[in-house]
From TrEMBL:
<keyword id="KW-0472">Membrane</keyword>
<dbReference type="GO" id="GO:0046933">
    <property type="term" value="F:proton-transporting ATP synthase activity, rotational mechanism"/>
</dbReference>
<keyword id="KW-0406">Ion transport</keyword>
<keyword id="KW-0375">Hydrogen ion transport</keyword>
<dbReference type="InterPro" id="IPR000711">
    <property type="entry name" value="ATPase_OSCP/dsu"/>
</dbReference>
<dbReference type="GO" id="GO:0016020">
    <property type="term" value="C:membrane"/>
</dbReference>
<protein>
    <submittedName>
        <fullName>ATP synthase F1 subunit delta</fullName>
    </submittedName>
</protein>
<dbReference type="Pfam" id="PF00213">
    <property type="entry name" value="OSCP"/>
</dbReference>
<keyword id="KW-0813">Transport</keyword>
<keyword id="KW-0066">ATP synthesis</keyword>
Length: 130
């Protein structure tokens, strides 16, 4: 049964997480033979990216994408990141269309504290009252 690249990434993590030396080498070889059998070697870059992502998740690392209307300095990124735990990897994005404030994306959530979003909510409230 063929899996998605994400599925193969998880399998690679699970079969290698506790292995060392010759056993690690053997498990990795078997994994690549499986990929060849399933004709998935062309997807290896996606599989490795999914493996790395899953390994980080399993070790408790939270990945954030923090979007601001301007480039955020390290102190601002650190201040935002600390609310998500001790193990955080934050990527910053500049999007001038949000006007101000920030948007923070995690794997499962989007927290939108942008000025653009606040203005949209205000517009909706004003339209309801008319």
């Amino acid at each position: 049964m063929k899996l998605s690249p994400k599925g193969y990434g998880k399998v690679l993590y699970e079969i290698t997480k506790d292995e060392k030396g010759k056993n690690l080498e053997k498990m990795t070889k078997q994994f690549f033979l499986l990929l060849a059998h399933d004709q998935m070697l062309s997807k290896i870059n996606y599989i490795i990216a999914e493996f790395v992502e899953y390994a980080k998740e399993m070790s408790g690392i939270v990945r954030l994408e923090i979007t601001g209307a301007r480039k955020l300095d390290q102190a601002e990124v650190k201040k935002i990141s600390k609310h998500f735990g001790d193990k955080v990897e934050a990527e910053t994005v500049v999007d001038k269309s949000i006007l101000g404030g920030v948007k923070v994306k995690t794997k499962n959530k989007i927290l939108d504290a942008s000025l653009k979003k606040q203005l949209e909510k205000l517009k909706i409230q004003l339209n309801k009252s008319n």
